[in-house]
Amino acid sequence: MSERRRPSGNQASLREANRARIVGAVKQYGGLTQVELSGATGLSPATVSNIVKELSASGILHTTPSTHSGRRAMRVSLAHGLGLVVGVSVNRRHLRVAVADLTGTIVAENHMPLARDHRADNELDKATMLIADLLDTVDSGLDELVGVGVAIAAPVDQRTASIAARGMLRGWDGVRIGDTLARRLNAPVHVDNASNLIAAAEWRAGAGRGKQDLITVDVGDGIGAGIIAAGRPLRGHRGGAGEFGHTVVEPGGALCRCGSRGCLEAVAGVPAIIEQLDDPRIVRTADLVARAIAGDGRCIRAIGDAGRTMGRALAGLCNLLDPERVIVSGDLVIAGELLLGPMRHAVEDGLLLDPDGTPDLVAGQLGATAAVFGAALLAIDHAQIPLERHDAITIGA
């Protein structure tokens, strides 16, 4: 009988692989019942139960009584005290920073406006100071930081963690964002396009929960798309997938920041709408929406026209990807049906599939925090979670 036993080394490797699989699933979903863990990992309920008991005793996992399908169950999440992550979101006008624990709960957050022509070195310095201040507010320090995620409103070259197309975010060209911030914080830093991270955040914790194929459209100063295909983020060969705002919709039209003319962003983005209205009372998105809601016909028409233009372009994307849901986020989504109604009708008119195949088009649920929350989730996904008790105690000591 002893000759048939699997060598102890293989048993240990299998055990570690199963433990890592369970921790990985909990990281991805933020918390699951043991029944759901079994389905997510493919492990037997008995194996899941035994490993959860081990890791709970080690201080790696935390269990709380719950219900599942009307029955009593045990919900499993990562234990508090394993360390903290930070999400950073940078676009042309704002810097937002959030501190979260490894369950994805944001425990502190702050943001500040940026000058239109800001520079990367200055803003990364500001981000570093904001991070240190926020950690201090929760009685923590940089030594408890296990990872940082950065959402950048531009295409990101995943090989260098730098912006992949020059001119897309003025002052950031050629900057290796991950390396630069990692040196300041002495922590691992991971960088992605903000639209990708908004999609991931809405998929895991917002309007996209339970959907395996979806598109998010972020509408503000720029226009970007994030894509979840078959339950996985779609980033493309070099991280450039989803640059929806640079679809040409008016050949020879307005000059876009990318250097082309007639891009969707240059025609239907918020700056383009405000410029077309040429009203000194309207300088921000909030001004535009407030006047539209108050009944200003020009503003209502401008928002509706932008929605229809985006919807026509979005119909082509839907014909290509066949999503189950389209989620609209960003500053302009506060206009509600003034934007979403015309966009929805334009999508329906442009779809090849019959009405039963029309994707839902809804507003995002995470609001202004979507990108920074997605950045925090990116850091959690890459965080190295210790699987032994002595390692767990070391972190944050």
Molecular structure report:
By secondary structure, the chain is of the alpha/beta class. The protein has three domains: 2-78, Orthogonal Bundle (Arc Repressor Mutant, subunit A), CATH 1.10.10.10; 84-196 and 372-394, ATPase, nucleotide binding domain (Nucleotidyltransferase, domain 5, 2-Layer Sandwich); 207-365, Nucleotidyltransferase, domain 5. The protein has 13 helices and 15 strands. It has helices at residues 8-29, 34-41, 45-57, 120-137, 177-185, 194-205, 264-268, 270-277, 285-293, 297-321, 337-350, 370-382, 389-394, and strands spanning 32-33, 61-68, 71-78, 84-90, 94-101, 106-113, 145-152, 156-157, 162-163, 189-193, 214-219, 223-229, 232-233, 325-329, 360-363. The strands form four sheets. A five-stranded mixed β-sheet has the order 6-5-4-7-10. Strands 13-12-11-14-15 form a five-stranded mixed β-sheet. Strand 2 and strand 3 (71-78) form a beta hairpin. The longest helix is centred in the C-terminal third of the chain and has 25 residues, at 297-321. It starts with 7 loop residues before the first helix and ends with a helix. 43% of the residues are buried. Mean pLDDT is 88; it is low at 1-7 and 389-397.
Helix content: 40-55%
Q: Total number of helical segments?
A: 13
Shape: globular
CATH topology of the largest domain: Nucleotidyltransferase, domain 5
Q: Work out the number of β strands.
A: 15
CATH class of the largest domain: Alpha Beta
* Biggest sheet overview: 5 strands, mixed
Percent of residues in beta strands?
15-25%
